[in-house]
Every structure is written in structure tokens, then in C-alpha cells.
Amino acid sequence: MRIVLITGISGSGKSVALNVLEDAGYYCVDNLPPALLPSLIDALIADGTACAAVAVDARSAQSLVELPVNIRMLKDQGHDIKVMFLTSNTHSLVARFSETRRSHPLSHQLRPDENPASRRTLIECILEERERLSAIEQLGHVIDTSDLSANKLRAWIKELVEIERAPLTLFFESFAFKLGVPLDADFVFDVRALPNPYYDLTLRPLTGMDAPVIAFLDAQPSAAELLEDIRAFIEKWLPSFKTDNRSYLTVALGCTGGQHRSVYMAERLAAYFSPTERVVLRHREQS
């Protein structure tokens, strides 16, 4: 079984890492006491699970000492196990807890000699957590997230566990402006400036997928120019969206009735990008 063990300082991005792995098909468990790790893996194997990700934090203080032993045991059993330790500087952690308005996990735990009326400060919790986790910090790959955006951390996690990045899906959608702009559109292009086949009575009942309408618009220099401009724009910026870990990009093309010009442009763009990209074509106003 492929096992990714995620541990580290609270607020350093363990939830982000776990979400990445869950999206990649891993069976994910958060806040598992280390003593239960072998039992969990046995149960998942019996259930036919191939990949698992487990997050462990400092709240399981009593059983943290067992974690190195459990990791060695799992490796001896032939499991492919990777350990990630996420950390961050105290200044960044304080800022993150302040932004989210969440309390530190250790703030709810009392020391044996601690007055229930006196809670530890955030910085005191962070320092104690560092102390608790110091013995396991070097068990795996350490990632300092102090200056990392969540998106950058996602990319690093994917690279570390060798997750194949799902290709971006490029959606082309035709629509009618008179019925509203699609809410899921990332880019909206208005193609109403093109000559309208609607005013040709022989073309009116047809759509942008029919040969006579295609021939009509193919003969318009403005249609070819606008198509090239949109195509060049998408080609220029598509790599940036892929780098940004986007799963999809929706390009909406609108005309007055959503029957002729927008359909033609969406069809042309989809045909151009299909050989190299994952493309989905939608015509919103087509029955």
C-alpha cells in the first residue's frame, strides 16, 4: 500500500496537504492517534484500499513516541510510506491563526498542574507543539510553508508524492446574451459584432453547426480575425492557468440568440484545441 503520513505544526498546511491527497484518490484520515496507525492500515488493506494518507498532530502526545516504531514496522512489511513534516515560522503561524480566528489545538488541553481558568497563549501553544514534535521532525521530508501560498504548497505536495497532475479541462460554451451570461464563465467573448446569419431567411432556422452557416461565417474576414484573436489569447494564457493548478477553464462565447455566431466560434475553437488539450464543448441554448 502507498501511505503518506502528514505531521507537523498546526497552521502549517496539513489540511491543505490532506485535501490534495484526497482529491487524488487517497483514503484520508485526520488527527489519528499514532498508536492506531497499524490497525488502520490492516483494516484498509482488508477493504482493498490501495492508497492512504494519515495526518497526525501533537494532540496525541502520549503515543507520538510510538510513531517511529510504527513507521519502521510498516516499511518492513513492504509498504511504500512517505512522511511529510510541515512547519512554519512563529510569525506566519500567528498571522494565520489571527486570519482564520481559530484557536490552537493545544489551547484546549490543560497540563496536570495548570489552572483551568488560565489558558496558554497562542505563542505558548506553538512553542509546546514544537517541543512535542521535535523528536519526529526528521522522520521525513520537512517543508517550510512560512512563505508559501496554499496553491504553491499544493503543487509541492503533488510533486513530492508523485501525483500525476490531472490535465486542465478547457470548456467552450456558446450562449445567448438575451438569456444571461453563464455564471461559471472564466472568460466571456462577445461575438455580436460579426455579421448575423439570422437576417438571411434561409440561414435563420439553422445553427452554427450547419454547413450553410459555417460557409457564411467562413467567408467573413471579421470572423476569421476575431477567431484568431481569441485563439491567440487562450494559447498565451493557458499555460499560466495550468501552472496555477486549475482543473478547468471555461470560455464562454455569446451572441444575441445563441444559435449561429457563438455556436460557430465555440465549434471552431474546440476543434482547434482538441488535438492537444482536454476539451468539452457545450451549446447552452441548443435543445
TrEMBL record:
Keywords: ATP-binding, GTP-binding, Nucleotide-binding. Residues 1-160 form the RapZ-like N-terminal domain. Residues 169-286 form the RapZ C-terminal domain. It comes from the Bacteria. Pfam families: PapZ_C, RapZ-like_N. One of its GO terms (molecular function) is ATP binding. GTP binds at residues 57-60. ATP binds at residues 8-15. PANTHER family: RNASE ADAPTER PROTEIN RAPZ. This is RNase adapter RapZ. It comes from Massilia atriviolacea. The gene is rapZ.
